[in-house]
Design goal:
Elements: E1 2-6, E2 15-20, E3 25-29, E4 41-44, E5 51-57, E6 66-71, E7 78-82, E8 94-95, E9 106-110, E10 119-124, E11 129-133, E12 145-148, E13 155-161, E14 170-175, E15 180-184, E16 196-199, E17 206-213, E18 222-228, E19 233-241, E20 244-253, E21 259-265, E22 274-280, E23 283-290, E24 296-303, E25 311-316, E26 325-330, E27 335-341, E28 347-348
Length: about 350
């Protein structure tokens, strides 16, 4: 089960969009603004069943949220765009006339060239590339711009943000085989400089997430590389200084094991970046509450005795307060768990 959130029906409430593999239907949960949702609206996705990613964007600049689906199929994968009507109903799907490659791992949506139209970024580990598709106001999508991460690099993780404070979006990629992060620094009109690699110290554990946040409260974006094993979880923070990335903090958390997903948000409304980590065995959610100085306080949001879950976390403001909430997608149990935050950073399910 894949899911995301967005403003689907133009009422300024965060809605949930998820795809059910069993029914091959897209489901829209329109928010009531208080942490509850209306009955699901179902939308059939023709001819495709295996949806791996869902993202919300605006691909034709009509003030309505659209949905892009990444379909993993043989011999190639494809992208499907569903154009929204501001009422939770979507127009006939548009299947893009080009293939993304059968090994695409994740889809990201952002307005890279500041034209008020969403663009799509995909990392393809076995093609050793990042592919960038630019949207246009007429709803069309460009042919992909190919960014090479290096021969046999296998780019596994991707994050988008302004890492060098020049007001252009940059693309950061963790390359599994090189054990380093490649950064493509953004330029005007969505162009990118040649890749710039820097090495990491994550050699032994499973690296599972690359996230961006402001962890020292200097209004500049930092990178956090997160790895986990059956023994511990390690978070390492990098900051761009003097034309390179420097490791600023390494946090070793023995109490968190088998981590599967992580996001950056502000759980307690203090304007500091927090890191939320979900584990699979057992199923649990933890918050690293930031102090704004690269230091964190570990808080248990939820814990259980259940094991074997695949956890995907989403953070957003569900019930219109000043604290971010957490949505946990459990792929194996086919469930969506919603944790509403309070001002102290505690969450209730």
């Amino acid at each position: 089960m894949s899911a995301t959130v967005g403003y689907i029906n133009a009422d300024n409430q965060i809605d949930i969009v998820f795809f059910c593999d069993d029914t091959a239907k897209l489901n829209i949960l329109l928010s009531n603004g208080d942490g509850t949702f209306q009955k699901a609206i179902e939308f059939a996705v023709k001819d495709y069943k295996w949806i791996k990613d869902i993202n919300v964007g605006n691909f034709n600049n009509d003030q309505s949220s659209d949905v892009v689906l990444r379909v993993q199929s043989e011999p190639v994968g494809r992208l499907i765009i569903l154009f929204g009507n501001k009422d939770g109903i979507f127009q006939e799907q548009t299947v893009l006339p080009w293939a993304t490659g059968s090994t695409a791992l994740a889809t990201h949506v952002s307005d890279l060239n500041y034209d008020n139209v969403s663009d799509i970024v995909i990392n393809s580990p076995y093609e050793h590339t990042v592919q960038v598709f630019f949207g246009s106001v007429d709803g069309s999508i460009s042919s992909p711009m190919i960014l090479s991460t290096g021969d046999a690099s296998e780019p596994r993780l991707l994050a988008i943000g302004d890492l060098n404070n020049d007001r252009y979006f940059d693309i950061a990629v963790y390359n599994l085989n090189y054990l380093h992060i490649t950064v493509f620094f953004g330029q005007t009109n969505g162009s990118f400089l040649p890749s710039k690699p820097f090495f990491t110290g994550m050699y032994l554990a499973h690296v599972f997430n690359l996230v961006i946040g402001d962890f020292n409260n200097d209004s500049l974006s930092d990178l956090a590389l997160i790895c986990s094993s059956e023994e511990h979880t390690v978070v390492e923070i990098y900051r761009y200084e003097k034309d390179t990335f420097q490791s600023k903090q390494k946090i070793d958390i023995e109490s968190i094991k088998h981590a599967a997903s992580a996001i950056v948000t502000d759980l307690n409304g203090d304007n500091h970046s927090d890191i939320v980590i979900g584990t699979s065995s057992p199923y649990a959610i933890y918050g690293l509450l930031g102090y704004g100085n690269d230091e964190f306080y570990l808080h248990t949001i939820y814990s259980s005795i259940h094991t074997g879950y695949y956890v995907h976390l989403i953070g957003n403001y569900i019930n219109n307060d000043t604290c971010a909430d957490v949505i946990s997608i459990n792929d194996l149990s086919h469930s969506i768990d919603l944790f509403l935050s309070t001002i102290c950073g505690c969450l209730s399910d």
